[in-house]
Amino acid sequence: MDVEKLISTLSLTGADIPPRSTTRTAGKPKFVKFLSGDNGEGMPETFFEDPRTFKPKPGPHGQIQTWGIFPYHEDNIWDFDGIQMMYRTMAHQFSYDNRGGKPWPEKQFMEVLKDRKREQLSKLDLADLDKKDIIIKIHLKFLQDANGDPRVWRRVRLSAGMKIGVFQDKVLSPVLNWVRNLHCYTFTDLRDGAVFGPEDANATDIMHINQVGYDYLPDDKYMLAHLFSEVGDKFAHLYDYGDKWHHEIEIEKIFPLEESYGRVQILDGKGMCPGENMRGSYQYENFLKAYDTDSYTEQVKKRREILDCPNYKGFGKPPSLFNIDAFDIGQANERLVAALGSPNSVRAGMKAFTMPINPSAHDSRTGKLKKGQSIQREWDHESHGYWQETTSNTKDKRSQSACAACGKPGGQDLKTCSGCRAILYCSAEHQRSHWKDVHKKQCSRKYLKK
Ligand SMILES: [Zn+2]
Ligand SMILES: [Zn+2]
C-alpha cells in the first residue's frame, strides 16, 4: 500500500470511525501464528480464537454478517476499527505476505473459515433448487418512506441457478441502476455469515476489503441457490467497500420446476437508485431526510447532485423532471437487455476514472490482457479525464453464462452466435428473436462465411 492510498483511506474513513476499539493489544492466539515484532495489536479480537471451532457471531436480529467476525451496531451492521486496521497494515506490510513470508494472521484465520464453508457447500444437496425460478425483492437498507417501508426497491423474477457474480453484473446492477463493474461488492449468506465476492477485482475500493470481512469465496463458482433455502430467507449485498451501500434481498417465492423457465423479468419497483459515490447508505439516508423538507430550489439542487453522478449520465432531461421516488421500468428493462446481451464484465480490469497528466501515460492498473480482452477508453470532456475498463469480446464460460436473450443460466447446451462467437443462447428460438430485436445491430459478424 503506498502513501497516497493511505492518505485517501484516512479521508475516506474519517467520518465513519467507530467510537470504541474492537481489538486488544496483546495476548496469545489459539491458532494463528505471528511473526516476531507483531503481538496482534490492531487485529480484531476474533482472530485470537480457533478458526476450526469458531462459531460466527450473530447480530441483534439474528443475522450473521461478514463471517461473524466483527461485533455489531444496534442496526445489525458490523463494527470495525478502520484506523487500527490501517496502522496495523502500515506496521507489518513489509513482513507478512512478502517475499514468500508467512501470510497475515488474519489471512491464516480466514483460510480456515473459507475451507470450512467450501467443504459444507460441496456436500450440500440443492434438491433442484438451482433449476427453479424465484421472485426476489431487493431493497436498499436504511432508506425508508414516511411509513417506514423501503424507499428504493426492485422485484425481479429469475432462476436460482444463476451464478452470484453474473447476477450482480447482469441483473442487480442494471435493474437498480448501479454502474456495471465500477466498484467491489460482496454477497453474504445471513444464515452463517459466509461472504462471496469477485475474484481478481481491482477497483480502488478493494483496499478496504478488511472492513467488509477480510476475504470471500469466488462468486462466479456459486449460485444464488447457495445463499438461501426457503421463502422468507434473506441475503445481504454490500456495494462499494468505500461508500458501503447496504442491500437486502428477500426470497418471496419459489416456483415449482414445471413453472420454471429461467427468464429474467423485472416485475415492479420503486425509487431512483442513489447517485454513485454519494457516500453510502447512512449519508444518503440523511440526504433523503433533508430532501423531504427542503424548499423547491434546494430539492432541484439535490436532484442535480444525483444527476451529476456516473450512473445518471444518460438521464438526458432537466433536474426538474427527475422524480426521486419514481421507478422507470422501461429504462430498467433497456439496461437489463443491454447487460444480458453482452459478455460478463472483466473484474481484473474494472472501470476507473483517470485524469492523466500526460494522456499517453502508462496506467499502472493495466495488467496483462487475456485472449479476447481489450481496454476501452471513453473520454469525458467535462471532467478532462477518461473512463477506462477492460472488456472481453469472447463468449462467457458456459458455467458462468446466461442466455443473451432471456437470462437463463448457462449449461453445456447453450448455442453460440456464429457471427461474433461472443454471445450464448439457451435456444435457437431465442437466438432468432434476439437477432431480430437487438443483436443484428451489434454483432461483429466477424466469423460469418461470405
Ligand atoms: Zn433464452
Ligand atoms: Zn453475434
Automatic annotation (TrEMBL):
Alphabetic keyword roster: Metal-binding, Zinc, Zinc-finger
Gene3D superfamilies: 6.10.140.2220, MM3350-like
Pfam families the record matches: PRiA4_ORF3 (PF07929), zf-MYND (PF01753)
MF GO annotations: zinc ion binding
Superkingdom of the source species: Eukaryota
Span of domain MYND-type: 403-443
UniProt-listed PROSITE patterns: ZF_MYND_1, ZF_MYND_2
Name of protein: Unplaced genomic scaffold CY34scaffold_110, whole genome shotgun sequence
The species this protein was found in: Suillus luteus UH-Slu-Lm8-n1
Phylogenetic classification of the source organism: Eukaryota, Fungi, Dikarya, Basidiomycota, Agaricomycotina
